[in-house]
Fold this protein.
Amino acid sequence: MSTQVSAEQDLRGVAREPLVLSGRDYKWITNRICGVVENGQPPIWWLVAIPGALLSLVLLFTLVYLVATGVGVWGLNQPIAWGWDITNFVFWIGIGHAGTLISAILFLTRQKWRTSVNRAAEAMTLFAVVCAGIYPGFHVGRFWMVWFLAPVPNANAIWQNFKSPLLWDVFAVSTYFTVSVIFWYIGLIPDLATLRDRCKPGLKKALYGIFALGWRGGNRQWRHYEMGYLLLAALSTPLVLSVHSVVSFDFATSVVPGWHTTIFPPYFVAGAIFGGFAMVLTLMIPCRAIYGLHDMLTPKHIDNMTKIIVLTGTIVGYAYLMELFIAFYGGNPFEVDAFHMRTVSGPYVWSYWTMMFCNVIAPQAFWIPWCRKNLVVVMCVCMCVNTGMWYERFVIIATTLARDFLPGQWGYYEPTWVEIAMFVGSHGLFLFLFAMFIRFLPMIAISEVKGVLPQSDPHYHPAH
Amino acid sequence: MSVSTEDKVKRTWGYVAEFDTAASVYEAAKAMKEYGYRRWDVHSPFPIHGMDAAMGLGPSYLSRIVFCGGLMGSLTALVLQFGTQVGLYPTIVQGKPDNLFTIPAFFPVTFELTILFSAFTILFSLLVIIRLPRLHHPLFESKLFTGFSDDKFIISVEARDPKFAREGTREFLQSIGAKQVELVEEEL
């Protein structure tokens, strides 16, 4: 006979909080998640989608203006040749880390609570990487020459320098984007089949049907599907860690004081996870309220994510302090001066302390259980983290370049209206893409949430 | 039904049987395997834990194919980098050599291409193994079947199965706990 497992206990007989509240069944989950796509969108959706679309047009306009005029429309010059563009690139790519982290690392470590957040977080990842990719692409100056980054034979018989971290970055970011799309799409197939089966015959059904590839949910399909998903998770785990490490090599392998530090790869990865989770919460808490997903995105989910934020935020804080310590202990006068100017006497001291407050001090609130439960506090801290992580990249990039070895190479950088419009526009694009995702695709992984219900265990027998 | 369908020649594809719970379909699957059916499947809204063993299926062999795909990625990256950096167009920069010992500088790209090739291998070999995309299938004509993507568990048995019998299989499916059984036909 099969083992008796009741709803409230796991196999070890330990009481666990259920992942889906109110004892919801399969039908309710299907209806609630598909309902978001099938029913009309609430007014607030339009309040996000329309401004998002308009701001995307602003972004498009600035890009056309930049290509037509030249990269000089940005405030960049010597010595500060990397400013808001690369700051925004690293900012967006960092946000793009939480999605694959949730889908891959939490999958491998069997954290079942990931099922309610992974779909939206993966979508967020893709859109963030799209936003990120725009910046280095246009930073090259002549956008139409961007294909020179790819190792293809060309008329000049030149080949890329594979020893350069900038080329590693091209490979890392494009691989990350491609693998994230594959991971996301494979996860979507069963849910697209659910949408297909609910549609009346017509264009919608045909489109969902084509993308669902004719999924029939047979166990002879599931067993290979599960293996494929597991392998993708196993491959994505080192990939997530590698992408931001490679991004950090752009800085760490140079000899500029303030960049030339070995702590950069782990510090960047922790920062990316930190910023990514803050963005996941920033997006999911409003979605949960607007679409009534409280039974699937429970306080436990928010609690877990806030704990990850306090953990990674503290790692980031440790890295900040370690940078200062190594500058002091290493005895390199240029290094000492770089950090002295960052923290005490330079032109960008304000941005350093903004970063310090937002990234290290604000998340410490999450040590207190009340703060993790109060959604207003959670949202405020997450907004702090979003801001702080942008400032972190700005501090690393602009303040370092502002003070080179010789005083003759010192400068001060201010963004022009083009850079500001691009920054705002990329947020618009991000919100617009996310709104489209909510409108057309299931924002919670239906099949995965069903799989973690207690009655999905074949040995489940309701306790009478 | 409608006149047009009667004009077409149809043949029996098999049966679909509907079950309400994961536990009942799990027990039914064990009975199916014990009886000796071969061309049958369990369709569920999510993968059921332990179903592979209940159906008598071994572990998936996808991982072996993906290993080859990953290896191809590593080799491609190494050939690409050594070929261009050492052979075609040596760039003597950054104090790094342009011979075999350049290899540490090639690790990041090798790593990325290994992952990239593996991911594409997973996607395409998965689709080949599970025979997708297949946009039309006789099962989609069934009324019971679409419940699999919502809250029902479906067992399908093909008429091609050696143990299939027009009456016997229906009775067997009912005896192992099916709530409803439906005959599925396909057009010739």
